[in-house]
Amino acid sequence: MDHAAEAQRTDLMTITRHALNEQGRHPESRGDFTILLSHIVLGCKFVASAVNKAGLAKLIGLAGETNVQGEEQKKLDVLSNEVFVKALVSSGRTCVLVSEENEEAIFVDSALRGKYCVCFDPLDGSSNIDCGVSIGTIFGIYMIKDKDNVTLGDVLQPGTDMLAAGYCMYGSSCTLVLSTGNGVNGFTLDPSLGEFILTHPNIKIPKKGKIYSVNEGNAKNWDAPTTKFVEKCKFPQDGSPPKSLRYIGSMVADVHRTLLYGGIFLYPADKKSPNGKLRVLYEVFPMSFLMEQAGGQAFTGKQRALELAPTKLHDRSPIFLGSYDDVEEIKALYASESGTP
Questions:
Q1: Contact (CB, 8 A) for 213 and 261
Q2: Cα separation, 202 vs 186, whole angstroms
Q3: 262 vs 209: CA distance, rounded Å
Q4: Which residues of 2-24 are buried (b: 16+ CB within 10 A; e: fewer)?
Q5: At what angle do helices 75-90 and 32-53 cross, to 10 degrees?
Q6: Contact assessment for residue 305 and residue 298, using Cβ atoms and an 8 Å cutoff
Q7: Alpha helices, H only, the chain
Q8: HEC assignment per residue over 104-147
Q9: Is residue 278 classed as helix, strand or coil in its secondary structure?
Q10: Which of these, 102, 114, 110, lies nearest to 34 by C-alpha position?
Q11: Cα 221 from Cα 39, distance rounded (Å)
């Protein structure tokens, strides 16, 4: 990219303009999705600002409560959750919300109801706030058939029904990556304009990568296919160079790097967490949706990740996602383990 030329550009593609362009491709559209997206973007801007000021504003300390996952909540977690819930409800385009921080689904008052369900993790990787490591917001958007009679069953849809997904990463820059089912685009917040500008159009993940990303501290509890795969990454038998290990421990940051540079991100099931650790509705599904839209794959160890059928709001699943060829390798190892051809 010619950064000097980019700096002089005056024809800026903002995220709102991009959404309106997409809307123009659907003549039946009434702009509801664009309005919903603008409220998500507002929430991201608010959280980005709060993250930048976290140390100064003493927002970092523990809030003293524990969320439904048994994790201690930080003040910034609580703040981010409130911001997104209020932004989504006030959009008038949602009828039910699922947040990592709330045990139950939030059903919107009938007067403010729209046709969308949003599942989100308001601040993923929040244990990294204190040390300045990238953290982020993850979201997935579904359509609800009957907004006036919405039930929990309407929320527990497979990832294949997802309309759009994205994440916003709060790091050295604030980056929002979005897919509406027509490829993946990355936008960077320009603080001087207060706008997200298209900086990574049509992101495509490399077919094969040189990086693997996993918490090797859990290695003694892994199953055989995961152990074999990581061993192969470190000690390849085909004469190829070993893969590099990169693991941040913040899913948004690890997936973002995997999306741009290629490779594979693994969070397998193990003896401690036999169902995996990452939550299906607001971590596994949105990231799997983005990976597939960018030309990669997402696999659970048993099936395509987006075909999972969740039975509870906070269901968990193992996940292997990234470059197409790298995920094919782990799929082959699981197939040989189970004896399937």
A1: no
A2: 8
A3: 4
A4: eeeeeeeeeeebbbeebbeebbe
A5: 160
A6: yes
A7: 3-7, 15-24, 32-53, 75-90, 152-155, 224-234, 251-261, 285-293, 324-338
A8: CCEECCHHHCCCEEEEEEEEECHHHHHHCCCEEEEEEEEECCCH
A9: strand
A10: 114
A11: 42
Start-end of H helices in 181-323: 224-234, 251-261, 285-293
Backbone angles phi, psi at 326, to 5 degrees: -65, -40
Q: Give the pLDDT of the chain (341 residues) as one tens digit per residue.
A: 565 555 556 779 999 999 998 887 777 778 899 999 999 999 999 999 988 887 666 555 555 566 667 665 558 888 999 999 999 999 999 999 999 999 999 999 999 999 999 999 999 998 887 788 899 999 999 999 898 899 999 999 999 999 999 999 999 899 999 999 999 999 999 999 999 999 999 999 999 999 999 999 999 999 999 999 999 999 999 889 999 999 999 999 999 999 999 999 999 999 999 999 999 999 999 999 999 999 999 999 999 999 999 999 999 999 999 999 999 999 999 999 876 65
HSE-up of 38 (CA within 13 Å, CB side)? 15
Q: Are 112 and 90 in contact (CB under 8 A)?
A: yes
- pTM value is 0.92
Q: State the residue for tokens 């664009």.
A: 34
Parallel/antiparallel/unpaired status of strands 211-213 and 244-245: parallel
For 216, the 3-state DSSP assignment is: helix
* Residues shown for the chain: 341
Tell me the HSE value of 172 on the side-chain side, using a 13 A CA sphere. 1
